[in-house]
Amino acid sequence: MTKQVASILGVPFTTRGFRDSVDYMVERIESGTQTHVVTANPEIVMLAREHRGFRSFVEQAYVVPDGIGIVYAAKWTNQPIYERITGVELLEALMAEADRRHWKVYLLGAHPEVISLAVEKLAERYPNACLVGYRDGYFRQDEEEQIVQEIAEKKPHLLFVALGAPRQDEWMVKYRDQLNASLMMGVGGSFDVISGKVKRAPAVWQKLHLEWFYRLVSQPSRWKRQLAIPRFVLTVLKEKWSSR
């Protein structure tokens, strides 16, 4: 299958839609090909733009457009990205595949209470998926080797890591050759949503593409992170006009 990529501020996004991306990932997992998935929103793009090391990780990954800002940027720059692929929805779609195919799944990250609740909810909803292990994100550096060894022994088809960006992707890249995981994906705050600790924006907010604003209103402490959105928009428009 040919690589289908669009570049947004130097970050290579897949141009496949949601269902095609899931099918592509399934195909890679079934063929034993390792995949590192990055769900990139404007904040991740700006991070990659400003930090060469992080950008090199992203350039080697399968990057999906997690954020309506990416879809708009593609429209402004005449690139074929038409559909956002949110991390939590992609996680759930892959869990549905794990349920059908009896795949092994390992979860890493988040607060101890959050990860326990997330595992409980996922086990209820996807009873045929094999949840082979989980670990919260509050571990010391000297515990990493033991965690990596445990994951490697389980050989999960799916490894979901919630350590926040860029740490989660740096962690996966650091240990990818030892982890024995078919597909690794950074999932940010997805465990918080799945556990029920954080509510997703109501459907009407999602349809209006205002999920980012709902999160800001619900969690005002996010305002510094949300500054990446106007910076991203201005940078995209500046590059667009300077290329004319």
Automatic annotation (TrEMBL):
<dbReference type="Pfam" id="PF03808">
    <property type="entry name" value="Glyco_tran_WecG"/>
</dbReference>
<dbReference type="InterPro" id="IPR034714">
    <property type="entry name" value="TagA_TarA"/>
</dbReference>
<comment type="function">
    <text>Catalyzes the conversion of GlcNAc-PP-undecaprenol into ManNAc-GlcNAc-PP-undecaprenol, the first committed lipid intermediate in the de novo synthesis of teichoic acid.</text>
</comment>
<comment type="pathway">
    <text>Cell wall biogenesis; teichoic acid biosynthesis.</text>
</comment>
<protein>
    <recommendedName>
        <fullName>N-acetylglucosaminyldiphosphoundecaprenol N-acetyl-beta-D-mannosaminyltransferase</fullName>
        <ecNumber>2.4.1.187</ecNumber>
    </recommendedName>
</protein>
<keyword id="KW-0961">Cell wall biogenesis/degradation</keyword>
<comment type="similarity">
    <text>Belongs to the glycosyltransferase 26 family. TagA/TarA subfamily.</text>
</comment>
<dbReference type="InterPro" id="IPR004629">
    <property type="entry name" value="WecG_TagA_CpsF"/>
</dbReference>
<keyword id="KW-0328">Glycosyltransferase</keyword>
<keyword id="KW-0808">Transferase</keyword>
<keyword id="KW-0777">Teichoic acid biosynthesis</keyword>
